[in-house]
């Protein structure tokens, strides 16, 4: 399988799930400007929307949209039931509910904060995100979103919240979520994924990660991630 990705982007979520499940995956970088892939393909011919992630299966079929990809990955092997309960188990629906919440109420609004076109409404967007994070902070059921078990929704939340420093959101005002970030960042397979994407830890707590070039352009310094 091939996972089309950008370092530290939302494609990090299915990358983490592949590592957690021990799936053999080939990472293919996509240039944001040219839409050319690191193996010479036209990414727009793979995903006409141009954004990542996309998962190409061994038979050439392509699946897009992160929440759908992580569910497919979890369902592809028996071990995946630990990350996404089986059909008929209400816990599966709980995980799917969080996937929908994250993609609609956190992921998309946070992306707007990276885009200067929407700068006139950044204040309102940030206020909406803060409201959602307050709700989520109160809802955190345990070490992870649905309790003791790490699921595909936790990987997705970790990736979105990892963008907090770049969107001027101080996650420390939500202690449960800040603690969540530290727990996920410490998982061995998560660290393997971070290292594979050449990300660096740059905050004192070591719970936020970014590519070296991104850090350098922002006048920050970081430390390479090691499993």
TrEMBL record:
Domain GST N-terminal: residue ranges: 1-81
Residues of the GST C-terminal domain: 88-227
Protein name (record): Glutathione S-transferase
SUPFAM superfamilies assigned: GST C-terminal domain-like, Thioredoxin-like
Assigned keywords, A-Z: Transferase
Source domain of life: Bacteria
GO molecular function: glutathione transferase activity
Protein's UniProt keywords contain Cell inner membrane: no
PANTHER family assigned to the protein according to its UniProt record, in alphabetical order: GLUTATHIONE S-TRANSFERASE GSTA, GLUTATHIONE S-TRANSFERASE-RELATED
InterPro entries (alphabetical): Glutathione-S-Trfase_C-like, Glutathione-S-Trfase_C_sf, Glutathione_S-Trfase, Glutathione_S-Trfase_N, GST_C, Thioredoxin-like_sf
EC number: 2.5.1.18
